[in-house]
């Protein structure tokens, strides 16, 4: 029975009862009117009329109350069931079904609701299975990577970790997944070192990929291994595609043990060869000195040219072996500093004296810029810093045009640092190579001046060992200025 029929039937019953009550009252009223009031039948007739009116009135009231109680409930109940069903679907309970076949209007609603719930259940099941399959596939891919990898969300909870990382960290998967990396790191030193680097990343940066410069030494699988750590931010496009959102980080550890061993072998080989070469080179230099001694004999012009050529190449070879030895000291961590109090002017005078012959050869004028007021002293390894200044001045002379000039000087800054600088006025360095020139063996493309490509690299290492900096200011066609900054 539909709602319309229910309402029609209910209203019909109420109207019929009202008509019955009115008709009964009218009939009894006519009977009483036709009866003589003084008649003995008048009293019983009135009582009988009142009785019937009361019975019919009471029946009408009972029927009305029954309709008032049952009719709204019969309409409200299916609506309530539909509302509850919708809430269940909203709570992802796709197994919910409605049975409203007793109501004609709601039967169709119930049928459509059940059809919708069934399709949602099928879709959810298929989507869930696809998601589980995709998750399993991703876990398989991550575990197949031979390098340790860890994924974290913004709350520093570990989302995924492969078997290699578990092995290196000496952890179990059930101990870390969906757990706070900071809590776990309290009892795991290696994880604490990895997480500490993440905390140092500025939070205001959306993308903050960075690689830890120094390799991480880890003892795993009964051997010492070296890893290069790289931090990658997980970036996802937000609702507005123009505003990316950071969702977490990935920590990747690249095993560089093999390369570290090769690099160590290379350093040892270069150190050994360089050290062994110094002996025969020194012997050649001694022999040249004996040849140049006129007490041994006089050389003709051709022989003097040959000895000069041998001397120049021997000195160049000696400088290269010295650079190689310095480089191996830095790379092997055996660089030892012997600091002492030194005046900056002493370093400048040493560099000028060491390069005087070369400057005279190319007719280069060396200008000194030094403040008249006293400047602070340096607590440094004067031998190594003098080597740096000598190398910078040698480069400035070689890259300057003949009959040109270079400037060497020093001054003290307001923040109590001493800056020593060497400036040439040659062709300059392309800004693209300002960082690369400090790398081992790097030479600016198109450079015709001979060199090993180690001088600037070693100079930077020596300066940084003193907690200083070595930078360059250069423009094409306007020369270069190298600035060494050390704490006074």
Automatic annotation (TrEMBL):
Kindly give the InterPro entries that the UniProt entry links to this protein.
HAMP_dom (IPR003660), HATPase_C_sf (IPR036890), HATPase_dom (IPR003594), His_kinase_dom (IPR005467), HisK_dim/P_dom (IPR003661), HisK_dim/P_sf (IPR036097), PAS (IPR000014), PAS-like_dom_sf (IPR035965)
Q: What is its EC number?
A: 2.7.13.3
Q: Which reaction does it catalyse?
A: ATP + protein L-histidine = ADP + protein N-phospho-L-histidine
What is its EC class?
transferase
SMART domains from the UniProt entry: HAMP, HATPase_c, HisKA, PAS
Q: Which GO terms describe its cellular component?
A: plasma membrane
Q: Which Pfam families match?
A: HAMP, HATPase_c, HisKA, PAS
**Localization terms from the record:** Cell membrane
Provide the HAMP domain boundaries: 73-125
Q: Which chain regions cross the lipid bilayer?
A: 7-29, 49-71
Could you tell me which residue ranges the PAS domain spans? Answer: 134-180
Q: Under which name does UniProt file this protein?
A: histidine kinase
Query: Which species is this UniProt entry from?
Result: Phocaeicola massiliensis B84634 = Timone 84634 = DSM 17679 = JCM 13223
């Amino acid at each position: 029975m539909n709602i319309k029929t229910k309402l029609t039937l209910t209203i019909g019953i109420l109207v019929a009862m009202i008509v019955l009550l009115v008709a009964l009252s009218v009939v009894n009223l006519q009977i009483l009117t036709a009866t003589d009031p003084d008649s003995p039948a008048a009293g019983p007739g009135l009582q009988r009329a009142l009785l019937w009116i009361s019975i019919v009135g009471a029946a009408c009231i009972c029927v009305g109350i029954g309709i008032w109680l049952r009719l709204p409930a019969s309409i409200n109940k299916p609506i309530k069931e539909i509302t509850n069903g919708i809430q269940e679907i909203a709570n992802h309970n796709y197994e919910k079904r409605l049975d409203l076949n007793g109501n004609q209007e709601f039967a169709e609603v119930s049928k459509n609701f059940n059809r919708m719930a069934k399709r949602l259940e099928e879709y959810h099941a298929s989507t869930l299975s696809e998601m589980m399959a995709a998750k399993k596939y991703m876990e398989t891919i991550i575990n197949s990577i031979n390098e340790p990898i860890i994924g974290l969300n913004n709350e520093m909870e570990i989302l995924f970790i492969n078997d290699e990382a578990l092995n290196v960290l000496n952890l179990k998967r059930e101990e870390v997944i969906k757990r706070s990396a900071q809590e776990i790191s309290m009892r795991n030193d290696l994880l604490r070192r990895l997480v500490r680097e993440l905390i140092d990343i500025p939070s205001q940066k959306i993308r903050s990929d960075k690689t830890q410069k120094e390799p991480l030494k880890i003892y795993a699988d009964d051997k010492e291994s070296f890893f290069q750590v790289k931090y990658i931010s997980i970036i996802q496009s937000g609702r507005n595609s123009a505003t990316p959102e950071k969702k977490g980080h990935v920590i990747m550890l690249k095993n560089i043990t093999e390369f570290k061993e090769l690099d160590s072998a290379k350093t040892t080989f270069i150190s050994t060869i360089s050290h062994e070469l110094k002996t025969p080179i020194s012997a050649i230099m001694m022999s040249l000195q004996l040849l140049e001694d006129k007490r041994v004999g006089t050389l003709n012009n051709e022989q003097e040219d040959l000895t000069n050529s041998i001397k120049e190449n021997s000195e160049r070879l000696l400088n290269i072996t010295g650079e190689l030895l310095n480089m191996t000291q830095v790379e092997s961590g055996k660089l030892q500093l012997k600091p002492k109090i030194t005046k900056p002017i002493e370093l400048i005078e040493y560099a000028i004296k060491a390069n005087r012959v070369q400057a005279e050869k190319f007719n280069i004028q060396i200008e000194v810029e030094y403040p008249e007021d006293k400047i602070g002293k340096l607590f440094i390894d004067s031998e190594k810093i003098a080597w740096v200044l000598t190398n910078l001045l040698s480069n400035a002379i070689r890259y300057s045009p003949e009959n040109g000039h270079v400037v060497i000087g020093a001054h003290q800054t307001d923040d109590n640092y001493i800056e020593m600088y060497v400036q040439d006025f040659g062709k300059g360095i392309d800004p693209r190579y300002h960082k690369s020139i400090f790398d081992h063996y790097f030479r600016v493309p198109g450079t015709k001046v001979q060199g090993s490509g180690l001088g600037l690299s070693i100079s930077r290492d020596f300066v940084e060992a003193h907690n200083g900096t070595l930078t360059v200011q250069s423009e094409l066609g306007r020369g270069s200025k190298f600035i060494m900054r050390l704490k006074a």
